[in-house]
Design brief:
Radius of gyration: 25 Å
CATH topology of one domain: MetI-like fold
Distance between the termini: 40 Å
Order of helices and strands: HHHHEEHHHHHHHHHH
Shape: globular
Strand content: under 5%
Strand order of the largest sheet: 1-2
Length: about 300
């Protein structure tokens, strides 16, 4: 027995072949394609410009070396990578509780008038020039740490001050994205909890927070990606001394700080030192990509869909 296929509605055929809509589809497709090509171009540039470096330096020594002294042709990326990760972790320790606490307050406790005032002020911090935060670390954070006896009085640069100011920098990112995730939780879940006699604190911590966990995790991981790639604030606050250490009171130099130092004229184009910044730039790109992959996996793991 044959099945007769119903004719397609005339309106649908007309919409499918409408030139204006086809133009919009082509424009959006071109935008997506350009984004992919730009990413491919960046990776290609890093690999091509750094190819001479990979040919003259041992990969084993590069990835396992604990010293970075280009003058002696010693290129160990671990001090730079560990400094970048250390500052990102310190920034997360500062930003996660402040950001999530701010998001819970704005979403669950603040009235609409307070939210309209506080949220723009909080997001203003995200637009603060990072070099200003670097000077803030030098002139305010580090002296405060010295006064508390955490940092020696004769030491100016340290990873802790850099981690604090980078944490302040990424607070708005965590707060804004987390608040959006909290406000996306259906009101029926809150009302059901209140109907059972739950307090506002219980609703915020036991109902809303678990329901919005995927959005919160995404905001944290994206903020870490932002922190690990921070440049000027870290360069000013943490110093320019490659140091393979987990002590936050010590001066360190991150990958981005090395790139800045070399790019502003410390090496001639085509030299081994100049090529090295593309090699460590590729390492930073891979680390950021792994963080984004982890973010995607976490979001899928904890994702909650409401209908």
């Amino acid at each position: 027995m044959t099945t007769q296929q119903l004719p397609e509605p005339a309106g649908l055929r007309a919409r499918r072949f409408r030139p204006a809509e086809q133009g919009v589809v082509l424009l959006l497709g071109a935008a997506a394609t350009i984004s992919v090509l730009i990413t491919v171009g960046i990776v290609f540039t890093l690999i091509e410009e750094g190819s001479g470096f990979w040919g003259s330096v041992s990969l084993v020594d590069f990835f396992t070396g604990t010293e970075w002294f280009p003058v002696d042709r010693v290129y160990g990326v671990l001090p730079l990578l560990s400094a970048s990760v250390l500052i990102a972790v310190l920034a997360a320790l500062v930003a996660v509780p402040i950001g999530i606490g701010s998001a819970i307050y704005l979403s669950e406790y603040a009235d609409e008038r307070t939210r309209r005032v506080v949220k723009p002020i909080l997001e203003l911090l995200a637009g603060m020039p990072t070099i200003v935060l670097g000077f803030f670390a030098l002139e305010s954070v580090t002296p405060a740490l010295q006064g508390a006896g955490i940092i020696p009085s004769d030491q100016l640069f340290n990873a802790l001050a850099a981690g604090i100011v980078v944490g302040l920098l990424i607070v708005p990112l965590i707060a804004s994205l987390s608040e959006d995730a909290f406000r996306a939780v259906p009101a029926a879940m809150r009302e059901g909890a209140y109907g059972l006699g739950a307090t506002k604190r219980v609703v915020a911590t036991r109902i809303v927070f678990p329901a919005a966990l995927s959005g919160v995790m995404a905001s944290i991981v994206l903020a870490l990606s932002r922190a690990i790639g921070e440049t000027m604030a870290v360069t000013l606050a943490a110093g320019t001394q490659p140091n393979f250490t987990a002590d936050p009171t010590e001066p360190v130099q991150t990958i981005t700080a090395v790139i800045v130092a070399v790019s502003k004229g410390e090496a001639t184009r085509g030299s081994e030192l100049y090529q090295s910044i593309f090699a460590i730039g590729l390492v930073l790109f891979v680390v950021t990509m792994l963080i984004n992959i982890a973010a995607t996996a976490l979001v899928r793991r904890f994702r909650t869909v409401y209908h």
